[in-house]
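Structure in, sequence out. Go:
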């Protein structure tokens, strides 16, 4: 890979991406860059375009499986884009790289209600909006009012909530290359934070009781098939696959829709387990389940 001038912002070469993911899986990226704001993001995409390099986007790395061969060209990580601005009463603007767990703690400190459902949710705000992440009876579509994104021509676009095409685990940001940079959310100021703290903490405790913080995973690897009416985890469990292992990866013995990196698992182990689970559910119940986890990087062709 050749380029005449170094990237214009903070970057590293040949960076092992496993450390950027909750799966702890992923080979080297040729270049990783950490923009701190929209201007830096635009400048690094301009630099990549000028050097004919493709770019891949990563938030908190909690919903991705990165190839064992890594990522060619440029990986852009959003964690530095984490500014918070108060726009007016109850309306806040956040950098897309804000860590959701930190945001829920910030909301408690500031007596702000609305984010309790996301207590303990790994990942960045941008990733959560991209996937319309949901938990404990709510989802991001319910609190996001507006977002800014950079499109494939490196132009800034703005979206109101009704333009974000939110449905189950989907947003407009998946429909074409749109890099989320800023997100506005309406949060309600309460006189005291007791109920905010209690609800947030009870969700964190529930996740903790399921050992979610002690395993290397990307959460649920399959979406639920709502037409089928049975959660994917239950289907995989009833197909007899709970605890099944390939290489260093396991269909989690405590929750069959999680795949766990138990012992230096490769991305190929995770893919093999997902292919097995999908086929078993299809064969046994005639129900099709689709991946939720996003496959990023230099994969040989495969299908799940
Ligand atoms: C233990 C555990 C529990 C989980 N529980 C839940 C749960 O209860 N509910 C739930 O919905 N999910 C859950 N997840 C999955 C994951 O945490 C969420 O989907 C999270 O919102 C992903 O955010 P991220 O920043 O980590 O995204 P990443 O994994 O970094 O990226 C996911 C996708 O989003 C894209 N992306 C990320 N940021 C941006 C951006 N700024 N602009 C454009 N595209 C972007 C990436 O390119 C990638 O395609 C869980 C994961 C783990 C590990």
């Amino acid at each position: 890979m050749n380029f005449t001038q170094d990237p214009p912002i903070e970057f590293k070469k040949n960076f092992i991406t496993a450390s950027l993911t909750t799966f702890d899986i992923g080979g080297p990226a040729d270049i990783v860059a950490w923009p701190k704001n929209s201007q830096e993001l635009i400048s690094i995409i301009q630099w990549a375009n000028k050097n004919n390099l493709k770019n891949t986007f990563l938030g908190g790395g909690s919903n991705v499986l990165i190839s064992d061969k890594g990522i060619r060209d440029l990986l852009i990580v959003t964690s530095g884009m984490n500014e918070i601005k108060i726009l007016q009463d109850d309306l806040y603007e956040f950098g897309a790289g804000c860590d959701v767990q930190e945001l829920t703690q910030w909301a408690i400190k500031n007596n702000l209600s609305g984010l309790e459902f996301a207590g303990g949710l790994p990942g960045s705000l941008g990733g959560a909006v991209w996937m319309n992440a949901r938990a404990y009876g709510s989802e991001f579509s319910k609190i996001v009012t507006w977002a800014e994104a950079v499109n494939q021509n490196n132009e800034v676009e703005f979206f109101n909530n009704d333009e974000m095409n939110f449905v189950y685990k989907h947003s407009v940001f998946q429909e074409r290359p749109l890099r989320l940079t800023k997100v506005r959310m309406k949060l309600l100021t309460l006189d005291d934070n007791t109920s905010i703290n209690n609800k947030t903490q009870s969700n964190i405790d529930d996740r903790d009781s399921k050992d979610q913080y002690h395993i290397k995973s990307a959460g649920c690897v399959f979406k639920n098939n709502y037409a089928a009416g049975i959660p994917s985890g239950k289907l995989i469990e009833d197909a007899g696959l709970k605890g099944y292992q390939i290489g260093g990866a396991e269909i989690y013995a405590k929750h069959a829709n999680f795949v766990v990196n138990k012992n230096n698992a490769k991305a190929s182990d995770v893919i093999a387990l997902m292919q097995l689970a999908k086929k078993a559910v299809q064969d046994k119940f005639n129900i099709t389940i689709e991946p939720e986890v996003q496959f990023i990087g230099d994969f040989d062709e495969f299908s799940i």
